[in-house]
Amino acid sequence: MSERLKSLSERLDAPLLVTNLTNVLYLTGFDSSNAALLVEPGGAVTLYTDFRYIESARDVPGVEVQLTKRGMMQALGERLKGSVQFEADVLPYVEWERLKAGGTKLVPTRGIVDEVRAVKDEDEVAKLARSAKIADRGLEALTAETWVGRAEREIAWRLRELLHAHGADELSFESIVAAGENGAKPHGHPTDKIVERGTLVTVDWGVRVDGYCSDCTRTFSTGGLPDRLREAYDVCLAAQQRACANIKAGLTGVEADALAREPIAAAGFGENFGHGLGHGVGLMVHEAPRLSPESTDTLVAGHCVTIEPGIYLPGLGGVRIEDLAIVRDGGVDLLTSFPKELIEVS
Ligand code: ZN
Ligand code: ZN
Fold this sequence. Notes:
CATH superfamily of the largest domain: Creatinase/methionine aminopeptidase superfamily
CATH architecture of the largest domain: Alpha-Beta Complex
Helix content: 25-40%
Number of strands: 19
CATH class of the largest domain: Alpha Beta
CATH topology of the largest domain: Creatine Amidinohydrolase
Largest sheet: 6 strands, mixed
Distance between the termini: 55 Å
Strand content: 15-25%
Shape: elongated
Bound molecules: zinc ion
Number of domains: 2
């Protein structure tokens, strides 16, 4: 049995039915669109899947494989006995009903596997670092090209080509290219808007390599910025660097967030930073833990998190600067290395 399954089963006091497919992949290496995994406190593990995946399921070491119909919750409801924990943030209500119909006592849980998955081993750190490096190189190539006069969508498409050329398996999410006032929308999709001179352009992009995601943001100038945008950039950068210099294991997600939020608020931009400082990254681009004023997480060594303050000025523009970092006992190791001083693109 894998170390991951072993450490999960040791945490359990009742069987856990894992239906989050990314958690199934993380625990067993089994990649499918239809599977469930029953992990028991004593270490017994059963992998359920349908006919399409049953042959690859038999290659998973240390688990008992059981064939089910494609709609598996009804079958599982009939097979499972006693009290079973389930992932309440993943299982749809209709599936819960089917599972319950067999008489199983269902106990909702949240984040049990996610908590294990949030702590990366060194093999995972190496994959995350590679993913971040490939993303850096793709963007570097893009900055050698002309941006002014091209549409946001065209630049986003070109970035995709460059990322693939540099070794990305796929994008970890659709890249954001937001110019001028569009930069005030933190998650705006690229539009037909033409990039003009005298403003900021925010690029938020990431790739997946060997299953692991990267996530990075840089904001560029197209020259001759209004004072207010220049000021926002400087404040955001100082806040981001303060967070990078002080985040370490043992801080809560709230404390980490405050490292960047305090100087932004002190500069009068508090209302313009409306999202959390960061999120975990791994097999998925958004996973545990959270760094935000509402976070209930505490950072531990091995967490992989983003550090991404932003300042959004409606009608004018915005800035966000995001790095990907591994939390260590005394600080963080940054995986993204693209320069952060304001770069002017032509
Ligand atoms: Zn991002
Ligand atoms: Zn992010």
